[in-house]
Amino acid sequence: MKCPFCRKDTKVLESRESDDSLRRRRECNDCGKRFTTYERVETTNLLVVKRNGEREQFSREKLRNGLLHACQKRPISNPQIDRLLDDVEEDCKKSRSGEVTSTKIGELVMRKLKRLDKVAYIRFASVYLDFKDPDDFKLATQDLKRKEK
Fold first, then answer.
1. Interhelix angle for 60-70 vs 102-116, to 10°?
2. Which helix H or strand E contains 11, and what residues bound it?
3. Would you give the distance in Å from CA 31 to the centre of its chain?
4. Is residue 95 predicted with pLDDT exceeding 90?
5. What is the chain's percent helix, strand, coil content, to nearest 5?
6. Residues 126/140, Cβ–Cβ less than 8 Å
7. CA 47, 49, 83, 35: dihedral to nearest 10 degrees?
8. Lower Cβ count inside 10 Å, N or C end of the chain?
9. pLDDT tens digits, residue range 26-48?
């Protein structure tokens, strides 16, 4: 693996297995800086069918970025986000066809976010459901309150 700082070769100092990944502590042979990598086994090639019919590879990082925006400045830790991502990815991989719609992914994320943090849920929903004006936010929050009762 190349060093992210100077692009030279690195060596592994320590490896640890976690739930579904391998954590490696690395050190650059040239500049001496240390960093951590996480390796995951890719089991299947999951395709996402977008709303316009196009198909693309499932991207955990793309989903993570959307979640990070929704959870910005909220009391949600990175491990909580990772667990949510794991759950969504696992649910998606249960598809026998190897394909999942972007709509299904959005619904899974919204359902899990709703339980985790209501504000992050509204933020994610505003992008996913394409809110056009403040009334959309008002309706979503009213619906959220109604379902809580």
1. 40
2. strand 10-17
3. 32
4. no
5. 45, 25, 30
6. yes
7. 60
8. C
9. 999 999 999 999 887 766 688 99
